[in-house]
Structure formats: C-alpha cells, structure tokens
Amino acid sequence: MTVLPGRRVIAVVVAAASFVFSVLVAVLALAAPARADAAVAGAYPGYRLALAAPRLVVCAKDSKSRIERLSAATRTLNEGLLAECSYSDVQRAVDAVWRRGTTIYVLPGRYRDAAVSIIGDGTPGCVRCDLQLEGTGDRPDDVVIEGGFTRDGDWARRVGIYAAHADRLYVRNLTAQRYSVAGIEVDWTDGFVLDKVTGRWNGSYGVTATGDDHGVIDGCAVTGNSAAGIATGAVAGVAGARPAVEVRRCRSAGNLVGYEGGDSVYVHDNDLSGNAVGILTGAGAVQRHGSFIANRVYGNNANPYGNVWSGRCAKPPRDRESDELCPAIPVPVGTGLVVSAGQQNTYAGNLIYDNWRSGAAQLGYAHGNRWMGNLMGISPAGATAPNGLDFWWDRTGEQNCWQDNASSWGGVRSAPSPMPDCAHPSGPGAGLSTWQTIAACNSYVPASAATPKGVRPQGCPWIDTPLRPAPR
Q1: Smallest Cα–Cα separation from 230: which of 247, 214, 211?
Q2: How far apart are CA 415 and CA 411, in angstroms?
C-alpha cells in the first residue's frame, strides 16, 4: 500500500464528506422505526445480568480446570456456578426448562458431539421462549459446542444450536463449530439476539437466520465456513417498513462469502475481509430493502476452488484442515459486494478497498438500488489499496444510481463510465448480455463421490483469481 498525496487525500475526504449528512439521515430513518416498534411490542429480548433466576447450570468434564485459567472476576462467578451444576449436556438443560424466562449458564469447557434444539410455539405460554443461553467464560471460545465427526470422518451433526419459534431468545458468548450445515441457526422467531457468538469451520454457515423478525446479530466472529459466515433469509410482512434483522459489529473472514442475504436488513459497522466475496445479496432469492451502512469490505480475494480441483474436498471433513473451504456454488472471486437481482437497497458510507476484481458488482436486472457516499480503494489509515474496478454494472434494471462516491483512482473507476446519478437514475434498457457467463459458471460441479475433483466450468472467469491492481 502507498499513502495518498495530500491533494488527493483532501479531494477524497471532501467527496466522501459531501454525503455524510445524507448517510446519517438514512441511518436514523432506519433505526428510529425499529426502536419505536420495540418500545411498543417489546419484541427485542433484553440481556439478563448474572446471576439471573430461574437458572440452570451446565458444566463439562474439563470445566474446573478451565475455570482456573479465567480472569479473577470471571473465575469467582464460575466457581459459584460450578457448585450449582446439574447438567453435563446442554440439550438436557433445555429440555428441563419449565418456566418462561429461564437462563441457562454454560460453564467453560468443550461439549463434544453436541446438538442443541430450542423449539418454542410462540404463544404466551411458551416455556422455552424468553430463554437466555449464555457461556460464562472470558471469551466465546472458552465455551465450545462441537459437532465433530463420525467414525468414517463425515460430519456427525447438522446444526450446533437450532432455534425455531423461540421468541425473545438471547444467545451469548459461546462458540459453535464443526457442523455440516450451521453453527447457529434461528428460524421463524420473533425477537432474538446473538451476542458475541462465534461460528467457525462449518460445512455451510457460521450463523444463519431465516423468517425472523426483531432480530439482532451483534459482535459475532465467523470464519472457515464453506457457504457464508453470516446469512439471513427472507421475512414476510416487513417489506422495508423497518429492519427485520440487524447485523452489526461482526467480523466475517475466511469464508466463501462474508455476508449473504439482505431482505429487510440493516447491516452496519461490520468487518468483512479475506473471503472470496464480501457481501452477496439477491442470489437465488427475492431480496429487497436492505441497508448496508459503514461497513469495511476489503481484501476479499481468497480463492477456495483450488481445494476442489486438487481433490482435497473429496476427503472426509475430518481429514481436511479446519479452514479448508469446499464451495458448493461459484462466486466471482475478488469482489467486495455483489448484487444479483436485488431491489431497493441502499449502500452508503462503506469503506470498500483492495478487492481485486471489483469493489462492487451489480447484475441481473437489479433495480432501485442506491450507491452513495462510499469510499473506494482507501484504507482507514488513508493508504491506497485500489479495487480492480470500483463499480461494475451490467446496465440492466431501472432506478439505480451511483452518487458522491470517492476513489483512490482520483475519479471513480467504473464500467460503464460514467454511472447514472441519483438525479438521473437508470431507465429501461437491454444492458449487457451476461447470461452466457452466468450459464457457464452455473455448470460448476462441486466435489463429491461421483466427481472427486468437481467439474471446472469452461468460460467462467469468476473462479479465477484476478490480478492485483497496482496503485498509480
């Protein structure tokens, strides 16, 4: 990286600052309805400080030795809870819950061959609603819930912590790893918080949520997941009136995709780096009304497809390295954000840099999307780290616009150039023909018993690592 000369720094700062007020207005407009709704409905669960009651305590064989290594205050708390421990299995503690509003404390330890299922019914009498499941260590990796492998090396469990219709669920300060589908999955739940959780080394997702409302994913760390670190699915009945799920302050690195989904979401202040793609919205599903604000999306140039061509992905999961990804789908390696047919989204105030193919790509008749006030190709320290292109667009879809974005290139580097601004958004048009590339890439076949080295699609540039752009 090189440091920008003073004149270019000033130009970039001025260009980026010109939209700060609008970005803040957008953020406040999004946040205010969510807070008002929470005040009326009380749907967002609150955190219960220790020691909460009623409570159940879970401990592992190695809890005592692990407690001895904790910080003083945390050690004192855990020594007291250890005397109350009645369960060695988290699922048995969940099954023993008899009263709504119970807290389950999980003491430091590794809980092997584990799977936790929290199923509520969403009614006022739901005893497993308003449940708090909390690891009591200093860090999330002090409490590890692990699926592990069968004798022949395959995945032993599908999901680490699965919740459905478990309204007002709060999960905090623990790690879920080595599951075939997801570390943590929350479905059809009204009101949940995933607070400082880690999801790593899973066959598909670190953390995923589908069909939920009033959800918050806060401070998570996700890595080594072969589909996406964080994924959120569609929710009915919101339609952009407010965010259904908020994703904030998470770090997603070393996955195929950092974040995937985006229907009625507010994704902000996250760090997405070292993936093949940073953010992917609209792929394979109807996606609308996402707000992506003040994220750092950088260095998403990892290419895991070599694991397929080499035959490493044909090995049982047990015999692969923990962070060795085996992708099931093709994605355009080296892209910060990909919008495929997404609608009515806002991308504002993001730092997007060092993505070698492009900072952002929009395709597939996506419409109504606004790209405003993003800073392209410049790190938070002010060093130049250019994207290959800042923006690429296939020229399809109406009411799209790009405005007040700034770039390390001096002017935004885009294809086409210039891009439509928000006073003159895109109109109808045939655009570029990209279906041949998409069709070619969709012929990708992942590794399996029948195709141990997969099938490399011909005519698909996505799966090749792009050249790193040189700063000028």
Answers
A1: 247
A2: 13
Amino acid occupying residue 336 = G
104: which residues sit within 8 A by CB, 6+ positions away? Answer: 55, 56, 57, 58, 90, 93, 94, 97, 131, 132, 133, 134
pLDDT digits (tens, 9 = 90+) for 100-149: 999 999 999 999 999 999 999 978 899 999 999 999 999 999 999 999 99
pTM of the model: 0.92
Burial of 11 (0-12, 13-18, 19+ CB in 10 A): middle
Distances (CA, A) of 67 to 64, 74, 79, 82, 114: 5, 8, 7, 9, 21
Report how far Cα 132 is from the mean position of its chain's Cα atoms: 22
Distance CA 105, CA 117 (A): 16
Task: Determine the longest span between alpha carbons in the chain, in angstroms.
Answer: 70
Asked whether 250 and 219 are in contact (CB, 8 A), the reply is yes
Of the two residues 40 and 447, the one the predictor is more confident about is 447
Distance (Å, whole) CA 414 – CA 63:
55
* C-alpha distances in Å from residue 163, one per residue of 7, 292, 461: 53, 26, 39
Rounded distance between C-alpha atoms, residue 423 and residue 411, angstroms: 19
Average pLDDT over residues 27-50: 55
Partnered with residue 208 across adjacent β-strands are 185, 231
The CA distance from 396 to 366, in Å, is 7
d(CA 391, CA 66): 49
Q: At residue 2, what are phi and psi to the nearest 5 degrees?
A: -125, 155
What are the tens digits of pLDDT across the range 172-212? 999 999 999 999 999 999 999 999 999 999 999 999 999 99
